[in-house]
Design goal:
136 residues, 43% helix, 2 strands, alpha+beta, single chain
Length: 136
Amino acid sequence: MVWDVLVILCSFRSPVGLQSRSIRLSAMATHIDAEKIENELQQRLISRMDSVRELVKSRQKVADARDALGAAEDEDARRYQAALTAGWTADELRSAGLSEPEKKLRVRKRATRRGASPTAAPAPQEQPGDTVEEAH
């Protein structure tokens, strides 16, 4: 005797939201298609990896833009200094709409230990606030 087909709804979370899938099982058939399951999971994994690849591309664009901005700011500062060296005053440049370039934050160099050789073991990690400015 053939049993009626049972319909089971399974829900799973996908990258695009909640989806509903139906799996039909008959009372007579209990075969699980491992290859089909593996292929479906592989497709989901590919989709997830594609999203990460796109994120990495985006982050690289941001890093490249930051590098380009830094180079442009350095060039601007050099050109501003060249204008001052050529005899323009900061007030004259400002009145023409050319303000002084923004100052970059300077990172303090850590003082090296006296008597430390280049082949010596690395110094223990310093805590924030333990930095020492070099005397000029």
